[in-house]
Amino acid sequence: MTISPPSDFASTAEQPRWQRYFGFSTDHKVIGLQYLVCGFLFYFIGGALAGALRTELLTPISDFMPREVYNELLTLHGTVMIFLWIVPVVNGAFGNYLIPFYVGARDMAYPRLNAVAFWMIPPAGVLLISSYFLGGASQSGWTAYPPLSLNTAATGQVIWILSVLLLGGSSIFGAINFVGTILKMRRPGLQMMQLPMYCWAMLGTSILVLLSTPVLAGTLVLLSFDIVAHTGFFNPAMGGNAVVYQHLFWFYSHPAVYIMVLPAFGLVSEILPVHARKPLFGYTTMVYSIMAIVFLGLIVWAHHMFTSGTPPWMRLFFTIATSFIAVPTGIKFFNWLATLWGGSISLNSAVMFSCGFIVNFVFGGITGIALAQVPFDIHVHDTYFVVGHFHYIVYGGTVFVIFASIYHWYPKVMGRLLNEPLGQLHFWLTFIGLNLCFAPQHWLGLNGMPRRVAEYDPQFQFINQISSVGALLMAVSTLPFLINVIWSAYRGTVAGDNPWNALTPEWLTSSPPPEENWHGEAPLVHEPYGYGLKSPVSS
Amino acid sequence: MPIPPRILTLLIGTALVLVGLWVGQNVNLLPVDASVNAPLYDELFKVLFSIGTTLFIGIVGMVLYSLTRFRRRSDTAGEVLAVEGNLPLEILWTAIPAVVVLFVGIYSFDIYDRMGGMVPMHDHSMASMQTAQEPEEKTWAGISPASVEGEPPATAVPIEVTAMQFAFIFHYPEADIISGELHVPAGQPVSLRMTANDVIHAFWVPEFRLKQDIIPGQPTLLSFTATRPGRYPIVCAELCGAYHGGMRSTVIVEEPEDFANWVAQNSPVKATPTSSAVIS
Ligand SMILES: [Cu+2]
Ligand SMILES: [Cu+2]
Q: Which of B53, B33, B207 is nearest to A370 (CA)?
């Protein structure tokens, strides 16, 4: 049983190939690539912003840009990287491209909603960036804590809220589509426990999006009332409570971390078995771990508020809950190690970036467990230690997986392989750059440098310069990547339909895939990781 | 003679733990400790650093070993054993993080308790004016390591802190001193009553390992006992506007007699019973 896209929109299929990517296409593959390319454009903007911040931090005094502008750029950097790069790419891009293949469908459950969800992103992004030119962007950081957000750069703050509301809406529409597709569009005969792991990761992520994003939206609407209509929900000067905002904000924004890393966990689970030629180790425990992370992820938010107005019992509860996330997360990492163990591992760029992810994420996870402990956090909260920690998680973790996925699926989309030596160069530059940039920041935080400052104690200058050199290396690392992606599109080795001899369904059709994914019926893959097994595919 | 794999695993595991312990004990990443709870913090840090080092080297070692030992050498993938799972192993590595986390949690709770984190906060400055029936003023509480080895918290030096864009102002109510720098006596508890005028700020002294947000709307209480005389930075740790990075001050920890002299020199109030109480 299949559902075709609505006929009035299906006509875009007759347009020339490149034009479809600028239109209201309902093809999940087109939408996935729209998310990806759009995300990369914002990644480069966010990266340029980071470059400006690291340039300012080369010297202990504020001399590269006005202090207000520094705060505007750090707010834009955080917001762009989270809401316009990582969340849309790791969910929207790979989710839309892969999920219909994985469930054996010809498209997503709601193709038009899918196109709407994507087309909310470019205007939201343009709106956000435009605030910088319309009298100044928000200066209160991506957390927008009141009362600072209530009395600083009001226009920029309101535009920021509108933009994040649009992006949150897009994320919710996307999540509805993933849940609908995974639960209702499966090919007959395909059981839930036979789905590739990325489906489970996206199911878990979508549940988190649906439960937590509306809370953020409601909170930001109230915040905008406080700014525009001078209500007093979060304004202590009017009897409001600024700490309530923090609870509501982190009720979304802690799960947001899992919205950024759970899909990455799923993608790594697809990549490693293929290149190690072994089944994914411990499929069932992997599924339960995802669901455990979803549940625990919803009850740990106040670990961001240990130095705020938080009573002792709450500090203890959130320490315990946060620490226990290490258990399901640990299971996943040991299972990946066991997947590699005894395999026949091809050390290509996809595997290098996946293993880079494991190393970086373990580092960020260990500092995360430390941060979860109240007495430890009281010293390093709101310092560069935290900045280092979360960049290991989101950059060293998720962004590494995004690159691994591009090396893995590029031949699927383009029909050609990416160049391996350029890929290895890209990996080593990124890996060294990341560690040079973010590892020293832990020391900075421990020794007294707070985050979000344009000026700092001169004793920290040398370490800050090392960190900035690391950031420069990360910027340089995108060059071999860009050259590779463009050059390989024309000159890359022709891949054939299934260059990795993979068993997951997207590789069981031509590369690039036809309009409706399959040339005949969708294959029934009951062992997507059946490497070395007798008959992984039937029918 | 080949070593059996079990023994080898045990040996490697022991070696890892030893390396972790050595690194945790010998690599110092922290600034000087200058308050009663700083050594407690450093003790916790060493333990976490040891555990973290052991886990990190262990896992990275396994990744590197797998990538070299099981690297594909020819173009065609050789046949490998299709292992889909192993329940005892999976139970083992559910247990490892569970045990580590349980230990870390209990240990850090103990540290937090010894820092005074579980001591209920009372606003001592208000207590004298209150009758039993009156409700206490609503306050936020930081940690309260006010009582050192049974010392009654009543001897704490009360100081009022006002945080504003972009400065801290310290008021000594008993001696009626207003100062831009914080003077405290070594070895005597100090009780801060902090208020914010405009936006959220945070009071952080890295050498004290202590940080507390100051939120407009409700006073925040924070107590500490400085131990090591010297000058240490006070840093605002919560983004509070354009000059947030410049919102710094200094805490000067002095021997009790030097502190008493400073109070005497700066106080418009002549020596009173309360200020002599501070000296004792
Ligand atoms: Cu969190
Ligand atoms: Cu401040």
A: B53
